[in-house]
Specification:
The protein has 228 residues and is α/β, with parallel strands linked by helices. It has one domain. Helices cover 39% and strands 18% of the residues. Strands 7-2-1-8-9 form a 5-stranded parallel sheet, with helices on both faces. A two-stranded antiparallel sheet has the order 3-4. Strands 5-6 form a two-stranded antiparallel sheet. Strand 3 and strand 4 form a beta hairpin. Helix 2 packs antiparallel against helix 3. The two termini are 17 Å apart.
Length: 228
């Protein structure tokens, strides 16, 4: 059984969703250290001028755990994000198909970043028809750091293989530790798929919203076609 693992992201990008598709079980790291200026609270959508970054403002404290990060609601981020999405995708072929549920999420009061991201990810997976089970690391009693923790998480769900991004293999993953734990290593070799966008030029690796708004029910098949 192949296990994919990744930290919880805001409006995750295509590569993230592709990893979920390629895994038999996907573990969401929702209790690791918050990474300032990372994808945990920001991602990119498409505008006529190129990519546009949407950032959820948070109260950032040094070495804070992701499940402790609170949203700074003194700033009208939700209204601005939904306005940007509606403005730039309002004429997309499948905007009307997703507008109701997405706008409802932005209308809800959110205090913690994890709650917002978990709700978005769960609904996006449902809309795409992806059946890979999502398991949240906070529900598993697994400690440790780096590869040691990855091994513990894979074993906790009965996995026999770990699906890793190519960058992790090159930078920090301990292959020897995986071999010692009898966990096979599968590598996600990613090439961003091309598809029709609302405006030119084409911008790859945006939030999954861009693909969903432009391609609707074909979105999952486009991502499956990007399988290594």
């Amino acid at each position: 059984m192949v296990v994919g693992i990744h930290q919880l992201h805001y409006l995750p990008w295509l590569r993230y969703i592709h990893k979920i598709i390629c895994a038999d079980v996907f573990i969401v790291l929702d209790n690791i250290q918050y990474n300032k200026n990372g994808h945990q609270n920001r991602n990119r959508i498409k505008s006529p001028q190129g990519d546009l970054c949407l950032t959820v403002p948070v109260f950032d404290q040094f070495a804070q755990s992701l499940d402790q990060v609170r949203i700074d609601n003194k700033r009208p981020w939700a209204r601005k994000h939904w306005r940007s999405i509606a403005q730039h995708y309002g004429r997309a072929p499948y905007f009307d198909e997703h507008a109701a549920w997405l706008s409802a999420i932005y209308e809800r009061p959110w205090e913690k970043l994890n709650d917002l991201n978990r709700t978005l990810l769960t609904r996006i997976i449902e809309e795409l028809g992806i059946e890979t089970p999502l398991i949240f690391a906070s529900d598993l009693d697994v400690s440790g750091e780096a590869t040691e923790r990855l091994v513990g998480l894979v074993h906790a769900v009965g996995g026999t293989a770990y699906l890793s991004g190519a960058h992790a293999v090159e930078s920090y993953l301990d292959r020897a530790a995986l071999e010692e734990a009898n966990i096979a290593l599968h590598i996600q070799h990613w090439t961003a798929p091309a598809y029709s966008q609302c405006s030119a030029p084409f911008v790859p690796d945006l939030s999954i919203l861009d693909l969903m708004m432009n391609c609707g029910p074909k979105s999952r098949g486009i991502l499956e076609g990007a399988r290594p």
